[in-house]
């Protein structure tokens, strides 16, 4: 994962062909520019809308108790999330308990209610039955209604009346009127409607809270990845079992086959395959040996590993991911703003519509009880509960899905813009290419085979640390070619290397050597390679030219697939690089890019983004590594850092892709589109349901014998909420 930390950058690859002789003359060790520390830009405007509350802060007005968990706690390890998760589990249990107790107490209310007795044609009565009904209904009203009264207080405190206000008004109106009928005034009480309304509302909230908790299961599963104990290797070599929370940087731990890695660290002994599926979404184990990084929560395979701890607690990759997911889930969405406005309007419609319904039926002479029942039903059925959940649940699910697949969303507003992206601008080195020299072409002369040419060249180059030499040796090893021994090895100052292989005098030299010795290059294949800006070295056997090897920054195989997919989606693909124009042109043609900008300095990259946005009117995503691409990532409508590995704190990116795989860019754009589509579906259902149900609740079909009771209205409202929650959970990646 972290090979990218030593990739030479675009500016360091400039004009390889031009400097081939100088590069190759000494074969001195060449070290690619290491990543600088991640740039932290001052302009945080792109992230300004990261609110400090959890995803369910939008529900503070719905459940008064929610307000407390809104704070975004910092945590050592995962304590913050555990508290958050525990709070919601407590709420699920609370609603379940209130529902069960209220439902049990509702049985005698229903059994002794005159309306129910008339419907089922039985008669059971005794003196003072109405007082018994009042007693049981009062217990249900005050005990079952607590969450709604708390919610009403919260909503009024925020000056934003909503769903809880409507429910509180409805049940209070029904209870007060019925109690007054029993105690003071003549009329018809409807205790059974009141208790069934409360039962259905509590049931709906219980199911809803279970859905919300289920939507955060990805976070929960991330937390559960962490083992609780570790095998600490003491200085004397003995091994003791300790709590993971007691580990500190510098400690050494033993991870046996099949065990989980307890904290982020570096392998100092052993080799094994490690399953990092939770990190990348791929189940293929990654080979780890000395010097490789391992991530807390990953599962060790067949070999024992001794690891030196590098990061613990809140500094681990897993903790950073959890924090990012929580922030992204809490970030306000533009679509959510629309939903909130619609919910507020619906609240006003419900109150005004309820009052208007009451007045109309009173005017028509249907009596106080009937008019009040119609008003209560209108208020209940208009509760914007489904509307309030329509967007946040989709946000929660999409963020969790992305995190489990190595796609980390830092800025939801920018992520949402991803659905409208017209063009994606790629950095070349390390993004579309691997950022390392590799053999791209082999030209053989004098009847020599490609395998033999690589074999004899590799025999000389294995003695060098130079990128060109390493590229040739890597190609030899990948093809499984045995490298012969070399005798009389020596450098040709400024021009290359030579030595005896299989008794022949072999030379691997630069174009400058051929020029100095009057050796002409007439082969069109070699001329074409040089015109593409590739670095070309030549192989001589007994002073006779037998072939040429061209090297360049290797194009990732995944890049071709990603570009093809983006084109199918109607998105332009553009490359932005500091490399020379010949190399850039070759890469662009190989991948079929729409445009490319070459020889661009790091500080000029943001200017190119601005040009695309303003002059061509494009909505632009920029894909880079988050270091020298930082200004361009910030300037783009959507900044994507690719191949971040374990470093999730890239300030300049809106989305961080853990893997060095351009196909993940396709995945994040598809996820943005499908997320928005789910939001639209939920909003359409929530508003459409109310449009259809409100007239029925008001009694528009009364003359045809169709009248909804408050309990049926509550049932329909709860059903709408469950449908919205279920639809959100159907969201998939891609």
Tell me what the structure shows.
Helices cover 48% and strands 16% of the residues. It has a seven-stranded mixed β-sheet with strand order 10-22-21-20-11-18-19, with helices on both faces. It has a six-stranded antiparallel β-sheet with strand order 2-1-3-9-4-7, with no helix packed on it. Helix 4 runs parallel beside helix 7 and helix 17 packs across helix 18. The radius of gyration is 34 Å and the shape is elongated.
Query: Which term fits the overall shape?
Result: elongated
* Annotation, overall tally of beta strands: 22
Low-confidence regions: 1-84
Mean pLDDT comes to 78
Spatial strand sequence of the major β-sheet: 10-22-21-20-11-18-19
Task: Report the total helices.
Answer: 26
Largest sheet: 7 strands, mixed
Broad structural category = alpha+beta
> What percent of residues are in strands?
15-25%
The quaternary organization reads as single chain
Gyration radius, rounded: 34 Å
| Residue share in helix | 40-55%
What distance lies between the first and last C-alpha atoms, to the nearest angstrom? 23 Å
């Amino acid at each position: 994962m972290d090979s990218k930390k030593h990739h030479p950058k675009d500016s360091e690859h400039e004009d390889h062909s031009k400097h081939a002789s100088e590069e190759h003359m000494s074969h001195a060790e060449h070290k690619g520019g290491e990543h600088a520390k991640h740039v932290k830009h001052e302009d945080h405007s792109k992230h300004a809308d990261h609110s400090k509350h959890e995803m369910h802060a939008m529900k503070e007005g719905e459940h008064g108790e929610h307000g407390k968990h809104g704070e975004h706690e910092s945590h050592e390890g995962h304590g913050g999330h555990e508290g958050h998760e525990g709070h919601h589990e407590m709420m699920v249990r609370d609603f379940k308990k209130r529902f069960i107790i209220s439902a049990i107490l509702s049985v005698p209310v229903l059994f002794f209610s005159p309306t129910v007795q008339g419907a089922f044609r039985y008669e059971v009565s005794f003196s003072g039955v109405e007082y018994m009904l009042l007693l049981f209904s009062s217990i249900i009203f005050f005990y079952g209604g607590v969450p709604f009264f708390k919610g009403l207080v919260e909503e009024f405190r925020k000056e934003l009346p909503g769903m809880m206000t409507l429910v509180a008004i409805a049940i209070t109106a029904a209870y007060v009127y019925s109690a007054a009928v029993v105690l003071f005034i003549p009329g018809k009480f409807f205790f059974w409607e009141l208790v069934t309304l409360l039962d259905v509302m509590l049931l709906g909230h219980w199911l809803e809270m279970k859905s919300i908790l289920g939507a955060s299961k990805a976070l929960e599963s991330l937390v559960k990845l962490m083992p609780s104990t570790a095998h600490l290797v003491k200085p004397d070599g003995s091994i003791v079992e300790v709590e993971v929370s007691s580990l500190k940087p510098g400690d050494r731990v033993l991870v046996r086959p099949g065990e989980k890695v307890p904290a982020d660290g570096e392998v100092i002994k052993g080799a094994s395959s490690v399953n990092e599926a939770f990190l990348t979404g791929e189940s293929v184990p990654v080979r780890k040996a000395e010097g490789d990084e391992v991530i807390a929560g990953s599962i060790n395979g067949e070999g024992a590993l001794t690891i030196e701890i590098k990061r613990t607690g809140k500094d681990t990759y897993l903790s950073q991911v959890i924090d990012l997911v929580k922030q992204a889930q809490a970030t306000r969405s533009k679509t959510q703003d629309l939903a909130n406005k619609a919910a507020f309007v619906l609240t006003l419609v419900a109150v005004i519509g309820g009052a208007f319904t009451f007045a109309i039926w009173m005017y028509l002479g249907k009596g106080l009880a009937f008019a009040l029942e119609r008003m209560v039903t209108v208020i209940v059925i208009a509760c914007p509960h489904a509307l309030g959940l329509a967007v946040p649940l989709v946000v929660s699910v999409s963020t969790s899905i992305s995190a489990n697949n190595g796609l980390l969303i830092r800025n939801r507003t920018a992520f949402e813009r991803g659905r409208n992206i017209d063009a994606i601008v790629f950095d070349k080195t390390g993004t579309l290419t691997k950022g390392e020299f590799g053999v791209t072409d082999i030209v053989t002369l004098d009847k020599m085979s490609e395998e033999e040419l690589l074999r004899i060249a590799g025999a000389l180059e294995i003695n060098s640390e130079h990128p060109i030499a390493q590229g040739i040796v890597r190609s030899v090893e990948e093809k499984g070619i045995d490298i012969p021994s070399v005798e009389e090895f020596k450098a040709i100052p400024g021009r290359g290397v030579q030595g005896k292989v299989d008794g022949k005098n072999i030379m691997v030299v630069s174009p400058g050597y051929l020029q100095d010795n009057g050796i002409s290059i007439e082969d069109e294949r070699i001329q074409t390679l040089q015109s593409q800006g590739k670095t070309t070295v030549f192989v001589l056997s007994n002073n006779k030219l037998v072939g040429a090897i061209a090297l360049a920054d290797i194009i990732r195989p995944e890049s071709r697939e990603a570009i093809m997919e983006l084109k199918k989606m109607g998105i332009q693909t553009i490359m932005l690089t500091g490399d020379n124009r010949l190399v850039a042109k070759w890469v662009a043609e190989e991948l079929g890019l729409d445009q490319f900008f070459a020889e661009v300095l790091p500080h000029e990259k943001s200017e190119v983004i601005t040009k695309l946005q303003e002059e061509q009117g494009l909505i632009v995503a920029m894909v880079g590594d988050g270091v020298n691409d930082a200004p361009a990532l910030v300037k783009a409508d959507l900044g994507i850092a690719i191949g971040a590995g374990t470093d999730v704190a890239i300030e300049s990116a809106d989305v961080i892709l853990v893997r060095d795989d351009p196909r993940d860019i396709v995945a994040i754009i598809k996820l943005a589109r499908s997320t928005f589509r789910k939001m639209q579906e939920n909003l359409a259902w929530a508003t459409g349901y109310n449009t259809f149900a409100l007239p029925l609740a008001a009694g528009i079909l009364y003359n045809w014998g169709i009248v909804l009771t408050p309990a049926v209205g509550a049932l329909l409202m709860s059903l709408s909420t469950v449908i919205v929650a279920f639809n959100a959970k159907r969201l998939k990646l891609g």
